[in-house]
Amino acid sequence: MSPFSSNVREVTEQTKKDDEEQFEKLVAPQAAPRKYDVVYRNLVTFGYGHLTALYGIYLACTVATWSTLIFHFTIFVIASIGVTAGAHRLWTHRAYKAKMPLQILLMVMNTFAFQNTVIDWVRDHRMHHRYSDTDADPHNATRGFFYSHIGWLLVRKHAEVKRRGKTVDMSDIYANPVLRFQRKYAIPFIGSVCFLLPTIIPMYFFGETLATAWHLAVLRYVTNLHTTFLVNSAAHLWGNKPYDINIKPVQNLAVSFVAFGEGFHNYHHVFPWDYKTAELGNNALNLTTYFIDFFAWLGWAYDLKMASDDMIRSRSMRTGDGSNAWGF
Length: 328
What we know:
Blueprint: E1 2-3, H1 6-22, H2 40-62, H3 66-92, E2 97-98, H4 100-113, H5 118-130, H6 145-149, H7 159-165, H8 171-174, H9 177-184, H10 186-206, H11 210-232, H12 253-258, H13 265-270, H14 287-298, E3 301-302, E4 305-306, H15 309-319
Parallel strand pairs: 1-4
Antiparallel strand pairs: 2-3
Subcellular location: Membrane
GO cellular component, one term: endoplasmic reticulum membrane
Transmembrane segments: 38-58, 70-91, 185-206, 218-238, 287-304
């Protein structure tokens, strides 16, 4: 495991300086009055998905086989780690490096989640960290729970997101052949991995009807979405701030549980390059870290970046709210 690299800090500080020179400075929390331009296609799609998921809950409780439920829970875990270990910690923050076999594995795992392509995900998340909780943040939590949770996907992007998004450095992502493949074949590949196969397999192997298999596939997909959405919403609104009391992100243990370690959000926004996204490292609420550690042991993951104990302690004493690493 490599220690914190000063180059990461230098790049971050230079990026902020460049932003201040090119654009007016946005100080969080900030949300100027705006007119919402509804994307009706997304409204209909999400509406259908949630109604289908509700019926899926009924089918899961009445007619679905245990084999199908275990199958979809397994996909739920796979998809979640594809987001947390892949799109988030590896590709957005470059908190560790991965050899090609692990990159391919993570890309496929991420495809089960279908939160747009990894390229789209990384662009939005890099914007989120650079302009957190301002109008240039795609899911600005200053606008409340609903907007930061799902509302931002139902309206056109704020003008500041579009304007400043053009300056985000995505060169490393566009140069990645694994991610270019996912984007090039997004419709057939994501459609097959996320929806078609999880519908056909329970029908063929577990004797489910088409209706049951399809509704459970959509239920699993929608559940995956909301676990990720909670990091954008609840983990910016409710919890403690052991590391920096001046920002909105918080430590939210419930979110960490359902999102496999992503709810230690006050820590993550202070040390976004730490591969653990938490001071605690390996613990019961950070399954993603276990996953990365396993592949580090295997030799497929390497150059894991970590904040030192002295760095964490110093920052907590200087800007924290006095609570401990768990947020108590």
